[in-house]
Amino acid sequence: MQFVEGDKWQAKSESLNFQFRQVSATRGNIYAADGSLLSTSLPFYRVVIDPVVAKEEIFNKGIDSLAYMLSSFYKDKSTDSYKRAIKDARANGKRYLILNRRQVGYQDMQAMSKWPIFRNGRNSGGVIFEKVEKRYRPFNNLANRTVGYINEDKYGAGIEYSFNEYLEGQNGKALFQRIAGGSWKPVFDAEDVKPDDGFDVLTTLDVNIQDVAESALLKQLIAKDAAFGSVIVMEVATGKIKAIANLEKNAGGRGYGENYNYAIGDQGLTEPGSTFKLLSMLALLEEGKINLNDSIETGNGTFRFYDRIMRDAKNGGYGTITIKDAFEKSSNVAISKLVEENFGHQPKKFISYIEKAGLDQPIGFQLKGEGAPYFKNPEDKYWYGTTLPWMSIGYETKLTPLHTLMFYNAVANGGKMVKPMIVQAIARGNKLEKNFETEVIRKSIASEKTIKQLQMLLQGVVDNGTAKNIHNADYKIAGKTGTAQKLIDGRYTQLYYTSFAGYFPADNPKYSAIVVIDSPKGFAAYGGDISAPVFKEIADKIYAQDLEINVKSQPKFQFADMKTDEFPFIQAGKVDELQLLCNKFGISNHYNNEGDESWVKSTVSNKSIQWKANKVEAPTVPDVSGLSLRDALYVLENKGLRVVYEGKGRVRNQSMSPGMTIYENIVIKLVLG
């Protein structure tokens, strides 16, 4: 057989024992807008040895030390066990021995490559470090569902799944040999094809805003024992999403986790409730048949449409009020009566305004799995006489939070509707593969006059209406509350879907946001009580850290202007240095801190400076306002923060609010003055 059919069986042997197998490309990284890593691939290694390769002298000289080092490193078997396993494999001609199933990191691999026998390399020592890549997230679960995942079957969610064609790269191939036990070991071959690594994805997300959004949402979900909640924060002018948070109760009710993107997906489609009244007002104003100062009769808060009763949230109703007041107070009776009176005979006209605003179609968002809006058509068999009045207040229709936010963002943007985006570029190294620009969906969703009236109405909701609990003296918020009874098994229940959609600062909008919280427990489960406070907490923290919309001036001290009876303008610093200076100039000063904090801020009391502890050692972002640049750099960089600054003098403002969570390599911007 060897002589007659040798070539045939030799070829058969090679086809069975040698194969070109796939070599996976390194997956691309996912970055936040400031370059912070959201997801990356880290190399790990499986440590394997071909014990036959090493020469007798090298093997005998190093086997004892190698076995000892393996035992000390893995701590799972004795030195003798490792020595016996390697020697037995060598004696039996076994060419592939996995020394331990536990994978090691790059630094450990580098150290192990210097061990006895291993230091002779692959060809002379027989060591094989098989690379295995694992996905790693520096910020752990931050934006977990948005960053997403992809499994072995190439199914998943979020950015990892939606942009997999760019991230995964092009796999290569290499020659492998089958050895005893069915394992495969690589064999260098001239026909090996090197893998082409994946592209990186640069998102629009801001890790600071994401952290703020998740923290504020989680706190309210826990406080109200709610089923789930979502938050989206977006830049008004660009449509760039700065944060998406989705939290729901874990199985068994233990805590909250991010398991589904309710802000975008099918399961987030729901009746929006009163936030939809903004569209009704747009349609009414565009028709030119109402004036906001006109009166509307709401009676005792109930009104019959055919066989159904429309009710206001306030017992006893609002009586006769203006249309402006009706919107601010979110009167269901008033809005539904107005829509029925003006569109009841031509409901298609009302639907045309929904279509003009782009709310009836999917957005074509960059993430897969977007939910499609649902609106009844007057020609449908399920269109009833009560459909239009109930639709006017956000029932008998379904929208995702992203759709609602896109509409509110258009009002904030002067009527121009931009397409929400979460990925702004795809690149590899310094080479830009694809750039995503802001896309205008509608140049204008309504006339300039109508848009200005809608903006006034939304600001009135916060100043005088259902969201006056979040009225703010520092900056203005505009928005609308929403509360919708949940439809379960065809019946409306006493469970509610609460929301607040709006933008800030109202006089010069930079950010728009929506907060939805589902099935909160307790008294007063309305959008103004549940979701609006979350919006305000997020807005407050963004406002505090965004230097473009919040530049608080500090008084500047001029020594030439100081009178003899005035104190010098001392803000903050190290207490020993400040005390030394004050004592030198004969200035009374006192520090009564019982702890060991060495950083302080100052106040003046009874012609004396009082030092107050500034706890910069806490494991959160410290307050460096008032510090010199030198001191601020010392404090912040010792916490692992990267600092950029502008101006001269002392710190006037910082981009990250004191008390925020610190993540590795986060950039904080300081304004000096």
TrEMBL record:
Keyword Membrane: yes
InterPro entries tied to this protein: Beta-lactam/transpept, Beta-lactam/transpept-like, PASTA_dom, PBP_dimer, PBP_dimer_sf, PCN-bd_Tpept
Keywords: Carboxypeptidase, Hydrolase, Membrane, Protease
CDD domains according to UniProt: PASTA_Pbp2x-like_2
PROSITE patterns, per database record: PASTA
Coiled-coil ranges from the UniProt annotation: none
Tree of life domain: Bacteria
Database matches in SMART domains: PASTA
Record Gene3D superfamilies: 3.30.450.330, DD-peptidase/beta-lactamase superfamily, Penicillin-binding protein 2a (Domain 2)
Every PASTA domain range: 615-673
Subcellular localization: Membrane
The keyword Transport appears for this protein: no
Name of the protein: Penicillin-binding protein
Organism field: Belliella aquatica
Lineage of the species this protein comes from: Bacteria, Pseudomonadati, Bacteroidota, Cytophagia, Cytophagales
